[in-house]
From TrEMBL:
Domain HD, residue spans: 21-188
Keywords attached to this entry: Hydrolase, Metal-binding
SUPFAM superfamilies: HD-domain/PDEase-like
Protein name as catalogued: HD domain-containing protein
One of the record's GO cellular component terms: cytoplasm
Species annotation: Pseudotabrizicola alkalilacus
One Gene Ontology term of the molecular function aspect: 5'-deoxynucleotidase activity
Length: 200
């Protein structure tokens, strides 16, 4: 869409996307707030992760662009508007990382990013794909933060989803710890030491 020739049409597309993104606030996650009072929603999760990136930037590997990480984290869960939250430890419904989940999320990305003007659609879709692939230093660090934030919520709320899904120490290590350690090893050491008591 040519914004210079059709500024009104461009704004309509931008606001259509922003209004659709508001629906992320209605997607409830398995993870609770740190006080355990209620489930967090995916909009809150995305904001909190962006803040994690800002505050924990010193844990990133050399060369990681924290501004790009923040941008990734702000958009990484937009597909949940269509797909919903797929908890990493849940055995019900869609499985985290399954072919069905990946296909559903790709379809959601087509629809949601497709609301934007073409230039923004392409920029944000590429950024989302980069996060999903978790191969670049920026995406690896972003993915680490995406795993560590629910761990902190579970620690602070007395077990949270670990209790709900009967998570074992081995499951935490394999499903969560490896991803955190890949992009932020000191963070994994810190939360692993604090989670050990829960699994004793």
């Amino acid at each position: 869409m040519d914004g210079a020739r059709n500024p009104s049409g461009r704004l309509e597309a931008q606001f259509a996307f922003l209004n659709e993104a508001d629906r992320l606030k209605s997607v409830l996650r398995a993870t609770t707030l740190v006080d355990g009072s209620r489930a967090e929603n995916s909009g809150e999760h995305s904001w909190h992760l962006a803040l994690y990136a800002l505050v924990l930037a010193d844990q990133a590997a050399p060369g990681v662009d924290i501004n790009r990480v923040i941008r990734m984290l702000l958009i990484h869960d937009l597909v949940e508007i269509d797909v919903g939250d797929v908890p990493i430890h849940s055995a019900n419904g869609l499985a985290h990382g399954s072919v069905e989940t990946v296909v559903a999320e790709q379809r959601a990305a087509d629809r949601i990013f497709g609301l934007l003007p073409n230039d923004l659609r392409d920029d944000l879709r590429v950024l989302w794909e980069e996060f999903e692939a978790a191969q670049t230093p920026d995406a690896v660090f972003a993915k680490s933060l995406d795993r560590v934030q629910p761990v902190m919520a579970n620690l602070m709320s007395g077990g949270g989803t670990w209790t709900t899904y009967n998570v074992t120490a081995d499951q935490l290590e394999s499903r969560v710890g490896a991803k955190i350690a890949r992009g932020a090893p000191a963070l994994w050491d810190w939360v692993k030491a604090r989670s050990a008591a829960f699994f004793d």
